[in-house]
Amino acid sequence: MTLAIPLSFAESTARERVEHLLDPGSFEELMPPAERVTSPHLELLGVPSAFDDGVVVGAGRLAGREVLVAAQEGAFMGGGVGEVHGAKLVGLLRRALRQRPAAVLVLAESGGVRLHEANAGLIAVSEVMRALLAVREAGLPVVMLIGGANGCFGGMGLVARCADRVVMSDVGRLAMSGPEVIESSHGVEEFDSRDRGLVWRTTGGKHRYLMGDCDVLVEDDIAAFRTAAIEALDAAVPLTLESLEAEQALLADRLARYGDCRDALDVWGRAGVPDPAAVPDLEADAVRALRGARREEAA
Amino acid sequence: MERLHFRFAGHRVPGRFTPVLVGVVGSGNLEVLLEPRPAGADCAFDVTTSARGFGAIWEAVLRDFHERHGLAGVAVTIHDMGATPAVVGLRLDQAAARLPTPTGSGGRP
Fold first, then answer.
1. Residue A284 lies in a domain
2. CB contact under 8 A, A48 and B1
3. What is the mean pLDDT of residues A127-154?
4. Cβ–Cβ below 8 Å for B25 and A48
5. Cβ atoms A170, A204 nearer than 8 A
6. A90 in any annotated domain
7. Cα–Cα distance between A92 and A118 in angstroms, integer?
8. Which among B26, B35, B50 is the nearest to A47, CB-wise?
């Protein structure tokens, strides 16, 4: 008998994630490292560049279906989006319009715009969002898979919430401003970025799942991300005025319900979670059951 | 940032292979790219490192690696973000382990 040992998504590199997420041996990289499509800016600043500018893009198969994949490498400049990095993401999304894969998978791990390339990075992020929405308009699903130690912040946090579906592990984090940014702009009383429990309660996968910003919560296991990605194939969510208005209503409702809460523990309590303090220690399936129970109550 | 170049004469020619990449340009880490170098009978190292003034140590670590593997006809390109000599040696060995072996036995596990 062989034991299946979970392969941690968080601890794997971007390339390892792609290799184990897709059908074995099916990945074909576009602009591979040997082509040296690197940042034109970093060298001028005296910073070593990466052969892939911190993002792996290409095509492969998932459960036999053709998919396009991008994976950001969090260890290289925190997954920051520079000019080339962003252009690779945009190019992949535009390719989807022509190739019509069963899904575009984005394994996001990024602090947002790469500050060394500030303006180019900002423009790149807006181009990524535009390209992503064009893919959705064409009826092709874009799936974000978030489980890296650097989380998914800044511009990439915005990109994630533009997608059809967000899959996260508890390790993964999703937000606009990062904890340090909030602390430095609003003070430590507002948000203590060194309080890791607080940071994960506020931005981690469990909270995002309980709030509905994340659609699927999985364990920190590449196989679990793979299963979730397979379920997302062909499952495009229509992008219409009605769906945007429903999203807006959901956000307004959230603000009205929880706007005065000081901590996610208060939010979970008010949302009807029986023992909020126990949530951080729950397994992913127990947290999934919590949201299921709330849905049934609401129905 | 500093650029360093070294070249050592080798004997083990892996022949044709698709480029091999290991490692990541992260803090205390490096990426190593191995590519075929048809014109050369030696092993050429091209290092870009964020740390300045460690040329002698780089030469010693790369010479050590070369004595272990004796590669020829291979271009090694390194992007380094302050890795220690032990990590550099480890990444180089990982990369070399993914090269095709001349006899056809062994190779990737």
1. no
2. yes
3. 97
4. yes
5. yes
6. yes
7. 22
8. B50
pLDDT band at B103 (very low <50, low <70, confident <90, very high): very low
Residue A170's domain comprises 14-174+214-236
Gyration radius of chain A's alpha carbons: 19
CB < 8 Å from A in window 32-61 of B: 33, 35, 48-50
pLDDT tens string B62-96: 999 999 999 999 999 999 999 999 999 999 999 99
Q: Would you call A73 and B50 a contact, using CB atoms and an 8 Å cutoff?
A: no
Q: Using a CB-CB distance cutoff of 8 angstroms, which residues of chain A are in contact with residue B21?
A: 15, 33, 51
What ipTM describes this predicted complex?
Answer: 0.88
Residue B102: band (very low, low, confident or very high) from pLDDT cuts 50, 70, 90: low
CATH of the domain at A67: 3.90.226.10
For residue A74, which phi and psi values (nearest 5 degrees)?
-65, -25
Longest dimension (CA), chain B: 41
DSSP one-letter string for A185-221: HH-TTT--TT-HHHHHHHHBHHHHHHHTSSSEEE-S-
SS3 A155: helix
Q: Number of residue pairs across A and B with CB atoms under 8 Å? A: 46
Domain count, chain A: 1
Is the torsion defined by CA of A198, A200, A206, A208 positive or negative?
A: positive
Q: Specify if A290 maps to a domain.
A: no
Q: Which two tokens stand for residue A158?
A: 């915005």
pLDDT at A295 over 80: no
Which pLDDT tens digit goes with each residue over A89-121? Answer: 999 999 999 999 999 999 999 999 999 998 999
What whole-number percentage of chain A has pLDDT above 90? 93
Nearest to A70 by CA among A83, A57, A80: A57
* Rounded Cα distance, A289 and A284, in Å: 9
Inside any domain, residue A296: no
Q: Could you give the domains of chain B?
A: 2-97 (3.30.230)
What pLDDT score does A4 carry? 73
